[in-house]
Design brief:
The structure holds two protein chains of two kinds.
Chain A (H helix, E strand, L loop, with lengths): L7 E7 L3 H12 L4 E5 L21 H4 L6 H9 L5 E4 L1 E9 L2 E8 L6 E12 L3 E3 L12 E3 H11 L6 E7 L3 H10 L3 E7 L3 H6 L1 H5 L2 H16 L4 E3 L1 E7 L6 E6 L12 E4 L2 E6 L1 E3 L2 H6 L3 E3 L5 E3 L12 E3 L9 H15 L7 H20 L15 E3 L4 E2 H10 L5 H8 L12 H7 L21 H5 L13
Parallel strand pairs in A: 1-2, 1-6, 2-3, 6-19, 8-15, 9-10, 9-15, 10-11
Antiparallel strand pairs in A: 4-5, 5-6, 7-16, 12-13, 13-14, 17-18, 20-21
Helix pairs in contact in A: 1-10, 4-5, 5-8, 10-11
Chain B lengths: L4 E4 L2 E4 L6 H7 L6 E2 L6 E2 L12 E4 L2 E5 L10 E3 L1 E2 L9
The chains are: A alpha/beta, B mainly beta.
The structure holds flavin-adenine dinucleotide (FAD) and FE2/S2 (inorganic) cluster.
């Protein structure tokens, strides 16, 4: 265990994805005593996901071809030796003391759980996001996975999720997932994108200002063409079939309003369905600290930040997907700004501001052209699982709605146990808000969680009380 | 160097260091390793990153480990999780 003085920092960064890595390296460069914490085994987050370092194991070189912009990654990681690093450490909550913040961690480096506290004057929160999901018939069958999960298996573990994979949902992220699978030997039977191509064209202005991004997309398109993977626009998966695992999926065409066109069902054999509808930012820590939020263009609840990535709470900065889903390049720029300002830099380089503005425009264009098409609620049957943890079917929510007036997220939880399981509504929260007819992921009580991860009472018991800490020497 | 293994419900599962238990099982075609508390339905990996808690599994007698996060180690004893994983404690 590190000594008390080694646990006090000027800037503590939560998350070592593109945003957090950039924040930590720019904070140290600006002279701050900096720490970085991540629950994962290695730096990189979801974008530069790397296998756990080991001898004779899956090597970083093996997965390098799946990665983009590794030059930036290597540049950022080169700055890490000057930063105190806490990998396999999960932040479960943050409290305050007289001088700033107390960050409560569970150290899982030894396989068990050990409580640790770190102190910092300022925080940069860069916790990223997870795949947004909407329920459909059969989505609880093994073999139906999130697009990000399929990607994580591949990049982080060198494992191809299945032999015959259909990729579906919406958003530019479906392309790298399909391309990665195909390049790794899976047969990708199709990419089914719910959005329509003309929507893209109308957003072309923002796209053109991001030539780099466009180049990345064109690269994936070439891979898909080389493997003869059919890409279908305005197409959705309406059900997955199988006994103990997915065996087939049925897709349907969407009309211009995003409603399914009757008679267009097609059923195809698969062993994995990779599905994603964009991302949901991980907001437990900012919400626990009281940071102000807003609903973004994609319907996600995100943190409100100013031009220098400051949240509404003094001393707390937020960067990356948590203040608006926008991809790794945007996360990196926001992290650079947040880290420098948190370390006391007096101004932000105009170059960084410009590139953040362009990348945000691009992200918003992507969101506008990739909405979750309406009508998915109408396709649920009474026995379709909505909450996977508590096995709550759609019928239970529907009959609750019929019996009650003034229903909200809280009464839905109490009456049906929806969102009350281990995942604390991370998976179904968006869908349940929509079903209840509320602002997606709004203030329905589905985003706030008292602890950001379940932990054992044993780990809590080893937690040392902060009151006994000696006052720090200045 | 011979490849390390862990046991899963009595069979030997090979893995490469750095892989999670869930990744190693997926690599040999095992898709599910849990039955739900209510309907007893099979579940396996869903989010792949520790968010959904669908992939719960018993590792060395300890239930509710997330197979997508828990790194495989040689000689580990892994088994299917039924319901809460607390077997006889259930009433
Ligand atoms: C599963 C998945 C796979 C993805 N793969 C790709 C891809 O291949 N290509 C692509 O372009 N985009 C991908 N994305 C999109 C992704 O969001 C990127 O845009 C990018 O990684 C965002 O960067 P970030 O720094 O904001 O967050 P992230 O990269 O998500 O990093 C956040 C980090 O914070 C850590 N963290 C969060 N909460 C805590 C806590 N309480 N305690 C400790 N650590 C914590 C996480 O472990 C994580 O490493 C993926 C997203 C997901 C969910
Ligand atoms: S697959 Fe979601 S927590 Fe493991």
């Amino acid at each position: 265990m590190t000594s008390k003085s080694e646990r006090r920092f000027d800037v503590l960064v939560v998350g070592a994805g593109p945003a957090g890595l950039a924040a930590a390296t720019s904070a140290t460069r600006a002279g701050a005593r900096t720490a970085i914490v991540d629950a994962g085994v290695a730096p990189g987050g979801q974008y530069w996901r790397h296998p756990a370092p080991s001898e004779h194991g899956v090597s970083a070189a093996e997965v390098a071809h799946l990665h983009h912009d590794l030059a930036t990654y290597h540049r950022l990681v080169a700055g890490l030796p000057a930063v105190a690093q806490f990998f396999q450490h999960h932040v479960w909550t943050v409290t305050r003391d007289r001088r700033g913040f107390v960050v409560h961690l569970v150290d899982r480096t030894g396989g068990g759980e050990q409580a640790v506290e770190l102190h910092s004057r300022r925080l940069v929160l860069a916790p990223g996001a997870y795949d947004r999901q909407i329920p459909f018939r059969g989505w609880d069958l093994p073999g139906v996975m999130t697009a990000g999960g399929v990607q994580a298996l591949l990049k982080g573990h060198g494992v191809v999720a299945g032999q015959r994979v259909l990729v579906a949902g919406t958003g530019p992220f479906l392309l790298p997932v399909a391309a990665g699978l195909a390049e790794s030997g899976a047969r990708v039977v199709g990419v089914h994108e719910a959005a329509s191509p003309p929507a893209w064209l109308s957003e072309l202005g923002a796209v053109i200002r991001n030539v780099g991004k466009l180049g990345e997309g064109a690269g994936y398109a070439r891979v898909l063409a080389r493997h003869r993977i059919p890409v279908r626009a305005r197409s959705v998966v309406v059900s997955a079939h199988g006994t103990d695992a997915v065996e087939r999926v049925t897709t349907m065409r969407l009309d211009h309003q995003g409603r399914v066109v009757p008679g267009t069902e097609r059923t195809v054999a698969v062993d994995v369905l990779a599905v994603g509808w964009g991302f949901t930012p991980q907001l437990e820590l900012p919400l626990a600290l009281g940071c102000a939020t807003r609903v973004d263009v994609d319907g996600s609840l995100v943190c409100e930040v100013d031009d220098e990535q400051r949240s509404s709470v003094e001393g707390v900065f937020v960067a990356g997907e948590a203040c608006g889903v926008g991809g790794a390049a945007l996360a990196t720029v926001e992290g650079q700004i947040a880290g420098a300002v948190a370390a006391g830099a007096s101004s932000v380089a105009p170059r960084l501001r410009r590139s953040r503005a362009a990348l945000r425009r691009f992200a918003q264009a992507m969101h506008r052209s990739h909405p979750v098409p309406p009508g998915w609620v109408d396709r649920l049957s009474d026995d379709t699982t909505v909450c996977r943890c508590e096995e709550v079917p759609f019928g239970a929510l529907r009959s609750m709605q019929q019996d009650l007036v003034g229903h909200d997220g809280r009464s839905a939880k109490m009456l049906t146990r929806v969102g009350m399981g281990y995942c604390q509504a991370r998976t179904c929260g968006y869908a349940v808000s929509c079903i209840l007819g509320q602002e997606p992921s709004g203030t329905s009580g589905f985003a706030e969680r008292p602890v950001s991860s379940p932990l054992t009472l044993g780990a809590l018991a080893t937690s040392c009380p902060t009151e006994n800490d000696p006052p720090p020497a200045e | 160097m011979s490849q390390p293994h862990f046991s899963f419900d009595g069979s030997q599962i090979p893995f490469r260091p750095g892989q999670s238990v869930g990744a190693a099982l997926t690599a040999v075609g095992v898709r599910s390793w849990r039955s739900t508390r209510g309907a007893g339905r099979p579940r396996g990996l869903f989010c792949g990153i520790g968010v959904c808690f669908d992939c719960l599994i018993v590792v060395d007698g300890r239930p509710n480990e997330r197979a997508c996060l828990r790194l495989a180690e040689p000689g580990m004893e892994v088994s299917t999780q039924e319901g809460t994983g607390h077997g006889d404690l259930e009433v």
